[in-house]
């Protein structure tokens, strides 16, 4: 892996060394935590499912009233330039759009766009074979449909996750689960129906792909999942850009299904890996 | 008023021109909106009630697991240096403490401390004479006791406040009001009892001072205030470092009391102005 000193970023109109990418302290991200972002995976020089990520990026920007300084076409071309310049293997591109340099530290200004590309690791095979343990926490993100930069709760929970020797934390509200700080949640019912929450969640791109793939072989549902539904489930897993499909074998103190990664879960992971490959070759 | 180009700031250990104060894009404030801040008023070179602001600053830092890079004494001395260097009249000092330069964009790093001093305006006399109109919105901040940088909701509501020709927006939850994005709320009951919400609010320093001042002349209460309590109130006002005590004469479509700034409100404003003067002379 190369060090950050050799990486390039895009910052306010220019491609520059990542180590030279700074924002002034008057930026509303620093002053008021105001901004949105998105994150896509790059494999063999190809940003996977880029259309979907750009759609969501511009959607979040609109919801937060942040006009992007680049058109979708310009952003696409900038991403291509950055990928060529960095020439990384498996990596992620983060696009951050902030509230801009605010004169009074409160009113929105002209948004600042920053693109960062950095190497990425996928979950180790050992973790997929074993499955992960998760804990739960009552919380709903403020604007669940938008990918805002507000991860205060997620970061505050890192320690609790570690202390309980868990791998992630699933949010719920009034007994209905929603999402992880950075991943979506799925269960597989005893009848092999694949279910994922529909309310108060970020519409993950991997969530969307997995729902489509699951629909080819299984019944699928988007709807409310209670904690009790999870305890009764045959399988559970999470999805995200970096984690793909990761089996969940324990939720708080409750072992899910057989306590081992489920067949449907592993099948969907393989289908997703195939879909990524197909996308790269297309 | 001098331009920003002549102002000095403190950034990561150094006093430097404000225009040169930048944070790298890997900072968790930019990556994840993670940070806390505080803000005190400076008059005639004196940071008013600084002990209280520093207490709250370090309190917020502890709640958010952000160890400050300066001790309270060092911070106090840095504030003094900045005030001497900037030599401003009425101004505000903002202390921002961020999650730091995070290697993976998620885990907390060594916090970055930034101090900015900028000129400040108090509310014009005309606004005090007339009183302000406010609207309401259902919302509770995520960690109400901590002064985090997350103002996503407040900033998103700016437009609605303007569209409704209001001056600010009061948060409530389940019919119980809490606070404004940047101010505390008070009512004066028909029997002249001065009441302010106690739950889910930031403990404002001006709120504390006004409660103390009010206690010398009136009955005071910290407790739940419903929207209906407001409609029945004799007077209403908000408090903040920059706004001091500002009369509220309309809440949504409901005129409060006589529709003019109340006697108790204006009395408490005068007491606060006197207290500030006394602090400066002490």
From TrEMBL, chains A, B:
InterPro entries: Aminotrans_IV, Aminotransferase-like, BCAT-like_C, BCAT-like_N, Class-IV_PLP-Dep_Aminotrnsfr. Keywords: Aminotransferase, Transferase. The keyword Transferase applies. SUPFAM superfamilies: D-aminoacid aminotransferase-like PLP-dependent enzymes (SSF56752). The keyword Transmembrane helix does not apply. Its EC number is 2.6.1.42. GO terms for molecular function: transaminase activity. Pathway: Amino-acid biosynthesis; L-leucine biosynthesis; L-leucine from 3-methyl-2-oxobutanoate: step 4/4; Amino-acid biosynthesis; L-isoleucine biosynthesis; L-isoleucine from 2-oxobutanoate: step 4/4; Amino-acid biosynthesis; L-valine biosynthesis; L-valine from pyruvate: step 4/4. It is an enzyme of class 2 (transferase). It catalyses: L-valine + 2-oxoglutarate = 3-methyl-2-oxobutanoate + L-glutamate; L-leucine + 2-oxoglutarate = 4-methyl-2-oxopentanoate + L-glutamate; L-isoleucine + 2-oxoglutarate = (S)-3-methyl-2-oxopentanoate + L-glutamate. PANTHER family: AMINO-ACID AMINOTRANSFERASE (PTHR42743), AMINODEOXYCHORISMATE LYASE (PTHR42743:SF11). Belongs to the class-IV pyridoxal-phosphate-dependent aminotransferase family. This is branched-chain-amino-acid transaminase. It comes from Pontibacter ruber.
């Amino acid at each position: 892996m190369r060090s950050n000193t050799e990486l390039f970023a895009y910052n306010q109109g220019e491609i520059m060394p990542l180590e030279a990418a700074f924002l002034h302290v008057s930026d509303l991200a620093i002053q008021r935590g105001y901004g949105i972002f998105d994150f896509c995976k790059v494999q063999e020089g190809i940003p996977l499912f880029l259309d979907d990520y750009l759609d969501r990026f511009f959607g979040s920007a609109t919801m937060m009233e942040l006009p992007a300084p680049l058109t979708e076409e310009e952003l696409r071309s900038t991403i291509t330039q950055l990928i060529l310049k960095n020439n990384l293997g498996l990596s992620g591109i983060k696009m951050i759009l902030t509230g801009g340099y605010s004169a009074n530290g409160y009113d929105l200004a002209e948004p600042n766009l920053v693109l960062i590309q950095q190497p990425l690791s996928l979950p180790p095979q050992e973790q997929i074979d074993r499955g992960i343990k998760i804990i739960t926490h009552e919380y709903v993100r403020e604007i669940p449909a938008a990918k805002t930069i507000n991860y205060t709760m997620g970061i505050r929970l890192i320690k609790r996750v570690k202390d309980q020797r868990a791998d992630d934390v699933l949010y719920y509200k009034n007994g209905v689960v929603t999402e992880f700080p950075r991943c979506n949640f799925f269960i597989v019912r005893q009848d092999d129906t694949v279910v994922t929450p529909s309310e108060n969640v970020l519409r993950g791109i991997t969530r969307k792909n997995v729902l489509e793939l699951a629909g080819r072989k299984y019944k699928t549902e988007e709807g409310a999942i209670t904690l009790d539904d999870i305890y009764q489930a045959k399988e559970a897993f999470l999805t995200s850009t970096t984690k793909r499909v990761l089996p969940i074998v324990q939720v708080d103190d409750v072992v899910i299904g057989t306590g081992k990664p489920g067949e449907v879960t592993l099948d969907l992971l393989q289908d997703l890996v195939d879909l990524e490959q197909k996308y790269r070759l297309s």
